[in-house]
From TrEMBL:
GO CC annotation, single: bicellular tight junction
Protein name: IGSF5 protein
Xref: InterPro entries: Ig-like_dom, Ig-like_dom_sf, Ig-like_fold, Ig_I-set, Ig_sub
Keyword Signal: yes
Species: Nycticryphes semicollaris
């Protein structure tokens, strides 16, 4: 019995011989807490038991003869069979920060494949005042506060449609509760005209940064 291009694993039963392997394993994923995370694992014909593990703990098993055995309602699967083999899609519902880590697909007597899940938390972002009156030659400080994020967000500032130089603001990070992070960014400027200032907070899982704005109304001395 010969298999080409990939390792073979044999299971001998009376009158039967199976050669099977993991063709494609799961890939890394980054998602927001509360959303779904999905991982695929494709195995060749002949497999008997496929087990999904999260951080070393079995969360779902699939038998080739009896189908899936679920240990938690948050971990379910969808299965597909085609000419490439059998594909198990692990679905993690309502992802939590504690789900972050190693996701592993294991087939009996075959090498396992793994990927990493990063669950991130989109916290709050706020500037205390929505409008400010700024006088000529007045130096202003505007504070933007981000609370309850994971990981700590990347903070940037914009004026109208342009990014403000990083030398104009200072951002301090602090550890919050339950593994979450806080950030306080203080922008210092001298304005010569009315401007809309925007504070942006970004993490990888966000499709676009969260933002908070303040309108600074410039009043000259005349």
């Amino acid at each position: 019995w010969i298999c080409i291009y990939r390792p073979c694993f044999f299971l001998f039963l009376p009158g039967l011989a199976f050669c099977y392997s993991i063709i494609n394993g799961p890939t890394n994923a980054t998602v927001l807490a509360g959303s779904e995370a999905r991982f695929n694992c494709t195995v060749s014909e002949g497999w008997v038991i496929l087990i999904w593990l999260s951080n070393g703990n079995p969360v779902l098993s699939i038998s080739s003869s009896q189908g899936p055995f679920e240990t938690s309602g948050r971990f379910t699967s969808q299965n597909y069979t085609d000419s490439n083999g059998f594909t198990s899609e692990l679905i993690i519902h309502n992802t939590q920060l504690s789900d972050s880590g190693k996701i592993e697909c294991s087939v009996q007597q075959a090498n396992s494949r793994f990927a990493f899940l990063s669950v991130q938390v989109n916290g709050s972002l706020a500037i205390k005042n929505s409008t400010l009156t700024v006088k000529e030659n007045e130096t202003i400080e505007i504070a933007c506060e981000a609370l309850g994020w994971a990981p700590a967000p990347d903070i940037t500032w914009m004026t109208n449609d342009s990014f403000i130089d990083k030398s104009k603001y200072v951002t301090q990070h602090s550890q919050g509760s339950n593994g979450l992070h806080n950030a306080l960014s203080i922008l210092t400027l001298n304005l010569t005209d009315t401007e809309i200032l925007t504070c942006l907070a970004d993490i990888e899982a966000l499709p676009s940064p969260q933002n908070a704005t303040v309108t600074c109304i410039f009043v000259n001395s005349t």
